[in-house]
């Protein structure tokens, strides 16, 4: 029977080193925090020097999703769908109070109380809005986390997928067709 194999430390170091310094970022800018994110990518703060590459053209090329801004319940299925389209390994930074917990809109009927209700979050950056330096700090924390990751060659059966937390927000794409009622012409 095939078994999982833990890779040796030198291989783990090289692979994690490559991953932590080539994070292609998919910006999910939803509100004011997105402006701070853009500022962090410009020449003054320049997160490219940390090995973060702006901006992936689609989630299919991205390694890192930065959710910056207010996630509404209407937007939640799109966040989940685009996260699902990112290839493994993938990472998420929740940038700002709104993405962390709903922020100033925590008691709104239409705001998701934190993007971690939809997708797994690796690093939370607090603030309303956080400054670009806070995002740089969050990226450094994420890189520390990636450097310490265990790498396992999967040989066994895949574990079952967890239940989809966004399913409760998602309306069915195809509605069942209702039969037309015919007028009663027999009489
Ligand atoms: S945390 Fe503050 S600055 Fe960021 S999106 Fe929410 S309200 Fe705007």
Nutshell version of this structure?
With 187 residues, the chain is an alpha/beta fold. The chain contains 5 helices and 7 strands; from the N terminus they run βαβαββαβαβαβ. The strands form 2 sheets. A 5-stranded parallel β-sheet has the order 3-2-4-5-6. A two-stranded antiparallel ribbon has the order 1-7.
What would you say this structure looks like, in words?
Strand 5, helix 4 and strand 6 (123-125) form a beta-alpha-beta unit. It contains five helices and seven strands. It is of the alpha/beta class. Residues 31-33, 69-70, 96-98, 103-104, 128-129 line the site of iron/sulfur cluster.
Number of helices: 5
Give the biggest beta sheet. Answer: 5 strands, parallel
Helix content range: 25-40%
On the 0 to 100 scale, the average pLDDT is: 82
Features:
single chain; 187 residues; alpha/beta; 5-stranded parallel β-sheet; two-stranded antiparallel ribbon; 5 helices; globular; binds iron/sulfur cluster
Helices, strands, pairings?
Layout: E1 5-6, H1 9-20, E2 23-29, H2 33-41, E3 52-53, E4 64-68, H3 76-85, E5 91-95, H4 97-101, E6 123-125, H5 132-147, E7 152-153
Parallel strand pairs: 2-3, 2-4, 4-5, 5-6
Antiparallel strand pairs: 1-7
Helix pairs in contact: 1-5, 2-5
The structure holds iron/sulfur cluster (SF4).
């Amino acid at each position: 029977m095939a078994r999982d194999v833990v890779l040796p430390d030198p291989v783990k170091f090289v692979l994690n080193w490559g991953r932590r310094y080539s994070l292609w970022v998919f910006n999910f800018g939803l509100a004011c925090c997105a402006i701070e994110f853009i500022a962090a990518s410009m020449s003054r703060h320049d997160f490219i020097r940390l090995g973060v590459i702006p901006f992936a053209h689609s989630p299919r090329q991205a390694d890192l999703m930065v959710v910056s801004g207010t996630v509404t319940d209407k937007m939640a299925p799109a966040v989940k769908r685009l996260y699902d389209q990112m290839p493994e390994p993938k990472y998420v930074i929740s940038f700002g109070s709104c993405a962390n917990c709903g922020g100033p809109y925590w008691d709104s009927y239409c705001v998701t109380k934190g993007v971690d209700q939809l997708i797994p979050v690796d690093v939370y950056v607090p603030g309303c809005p956080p400054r670009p330096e806070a995002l740089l700090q969050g990226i450094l924390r994420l890189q520390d986390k990636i450097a310490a990751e265990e790498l396992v060659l999967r040989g066994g059966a895949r574990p079952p997928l967890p239940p989809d937390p966004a399913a409760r927000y998602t309306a069915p794409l195809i509605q069942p067709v209702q039969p037309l009622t015919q007028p009663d012409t027999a009489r």
